[in-house]
User: Fold this.
Amino acid sequence: MQHRIIIKDLSDIDRAAAEFISLIGDNTLVAFYAPMGAGKTTFTTAICRNLGVDESEISSPTFSIVNEYRSSKGESIFHFDFYRITKIPEALDIGFYDYIDSGCLCLMEWPENIEEILPEEAVRVSISVMEDGSRVVTW
Assistant:
């Protein structure tokens, strides 16, 4: 089944994130595909905020590769940014399989860089930028 959420502007992002969370159900592996500047980190931040993570704790893991947050229920959420990963062994060195096998929500930016080890069951999400500046999230 194809899903689609339109984000009109930044004021609409929390609604879109809440809808996204309800639609992905029990899926814990989420891979975001989008060009630079399309809003992967912004949407991930909105998802985490909707799950009760203090926004001041959320940041792009560009240099750390992975950040861990806690939801309002005390559950771990792992936020990955694979932009700087150039070889699969680099992803394995950070314990990639330990994270994705944990059962915790794993939100992954730039999954193209680890495609060959990304599990088939991962929800593959595309974010497109429209001419009017709105975003379309599909999976």
Remarks:
- The CA atoms of residues 66 and 80 lie 4 Å apart.
